[in-house]
Specification:
Layout lengths: L12 E3 L10 E3 L3 E7 L3 E4 L5 E10 L4 E10 L5 E3 L2 E5 L5 E10 L16 E11 L4 E4 L4 E6 L1 E3 L3 E3 L8 E12 L4 E4 L4 E8 L6 E7 L5 E7 L4 E7 L8 E2 L3 E3 L3
Parallel strand pairs: 4-12
Antiparallel strand pairs: 1-3, 2-11, 3-5, 5-9, 6-7, 6-10, 8-9, 10-11, 10-12, 13-15, 14-15, 15-16, 15-19, 17-18, 17-20, 20-21, 20-22
Length: 254
Amino acid sequence: MRTAAAATAGTLALIGFVTPAAHADTSAGDTVFSSLSFSRTTVGVGISAAQTLSVTATARDDSGIKVIAGFKLVSSDGRYLYANSMSCSRPTSTTMKCTGTYTLGPDLADSYYDLRNSSAGTWYFQAEAAAKDGDFYEIQKSAAFKVKRVARLANTQAGPEPVAKGGRLTVTGALTRANWDTNVYAGYGSKSVALQFKKSGSSSYTTVKTVTTDSSGKLRTTVTANASGTWRWKFAGASTTTGATAYGDSVALG
């Protein structure tokens, strides 16, 4: 019996496995995973609070499912994370449904499972369903999700306040992200961050310009003040890092 894996948490995402999937899954006979649901497909983790994730998989075979085994997550740096708890049921004579829950964090009781910076990126869920007639289906790399380092933007600061119409306004901020190796938020340098403005009375922000953080993650730029309103920074995120939006700073024309 081969072993394999499982997965995630937060807002429900469904992946269909009614027919054999590509991406190096293996199977024999008519065994399939008829459904696979992740509570989140992207998980952002900071430096302290661990994230709890869950995955539910249902397998089907005409002869009935003997077992679903090997529920685990495979990290981007090649480590396995097994479920904290598992529960299984048999909704019908031909199906089995299992749910596993997992904990992700940079400072767990067992240091082997601690997240490292190298852990950020694409993770995979793995599991194998074995049927009573010897058929099987093994999920290997068809079920992917993201684990990302949390980014933060400091409150936006804009001045002088008030500012004369047509005057120059200086806007500052700072972008940091979780360092899972040291458990601190460190400056995130050389990243593009949008400076946005919402005119007083409006309900939406418009990007005015894009500014690159310095080596320590700090942001600084000047703009022309043509109307009263709120300024803020917004970071779109990266392949290993979540997005972030700063609290805005309202500036009135004087």
